[in-house]
Backbone:
């Protein structure tokens, strides 16, 4: 309980330093505007663009808040476009953890030296997100190019701490506000906990990829990378390296002559197949 209270005050401090008051003043009541006016945090600089301030705050607050920022980045219809653009870098462009940590996890999980498995392993990750980061590598025996996804060290404890805080907040709101009960906030937090914990287990992700590949064996619309199960554990996922263009990089897609209408139609077709035919 005491640790949760300390954590709550730290989170409040993080977002007030980022001048969250300037982000919410247009949506808050006049009484809250008065509180923000006398806030000592108003003396922190607001010269940095608001989207960048929010990104920095979410990164400092931790993975739970980063995941929330990732969700918001996909909704430019409900948040200002400049903020959505800044939040988009939370998808795969976070500060990576040291490669020495990644290699230590690999050695422990595979129970053998890295050099015995990979003929090359790039120190600089090609992507770093809230849960894990990804490195390019080449298998020693088959010479195949792969990517290795490594879960961030210690992230389980961090997520458990913040989920505990979210549960206490949800219980408090439900107990104090009758209207909040119909929102079933605690149920939402419990559901979110199950989802994010499943994302921490690379075995679940590899199983989902394998099942998706089975469903699309007779369908050429979707290529699912090969998963190397013998090099996959709870904390690492090794899969086939493929190249492509991010779906949101419209300018590059157009430059490469991609038919955007056809791309959109095939994306919808894949989605409908997964939902209504495969139910997966």
Residues:
């Amino acid at each position: 309980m005491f640790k949760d209270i300390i954590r709550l005050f730290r989170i409040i401090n993080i977002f007030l330093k980022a001048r969250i008051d300037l982000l919410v003043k247009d949506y808050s009541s006049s009484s809250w505007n008065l509180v923000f006016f006398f806030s000592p945090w108003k003396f922190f600089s607001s010269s940095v663009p608001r989207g960048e301030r929010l990104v920095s705050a979410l990164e400092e607050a931790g993975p739970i808040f980063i995941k929330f920022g990732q969700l918001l980045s996909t909704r430019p219809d409900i948040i200002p476009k400049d903020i959505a653009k800044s939040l988009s870098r939370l998808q795969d462009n976070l500060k990576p953890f040291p490669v020495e940590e990644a290699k230590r996890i690999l050695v422990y999980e595979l129970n053998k030296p890295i050099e015995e498995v990979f003929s090359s392993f790039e120190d600089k990750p090609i992507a770093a997100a809230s849960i894990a980061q990804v490195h390019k590598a080449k298998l020693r025996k088959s010479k195949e190019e792969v990517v290795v996804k490594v879960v961030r060290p210690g992230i389980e404890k961090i997520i458990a701490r913040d989920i505990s805080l979210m549960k206490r907040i949800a219980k408090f709101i439900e107990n104090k506000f009758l209207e909040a009960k119909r929102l079933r906030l605690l149920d939402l937090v419990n559901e979110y906990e199950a989802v994010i914990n499943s994302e921490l287990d690379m075995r679940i992700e590899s199983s989902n990829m394998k099942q998706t590949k089975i469903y699309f064996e007779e369908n050429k619309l979707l290529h699912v990378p090969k998963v190397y199960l013998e090099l996959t554990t709870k904390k690492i996922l090794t899969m086939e390296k493929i190249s492509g263009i991010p779906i949101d990089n419209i300018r590059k897609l157009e430059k490469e002559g991609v038919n955007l209408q056809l791309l959109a139609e095939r994306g919808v077709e894949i989605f409908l197949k997964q939902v209504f035919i495969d139910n997966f």
Summary: The beta strands are 118-121, 127-128, 132-139, 145-151, 236-240.
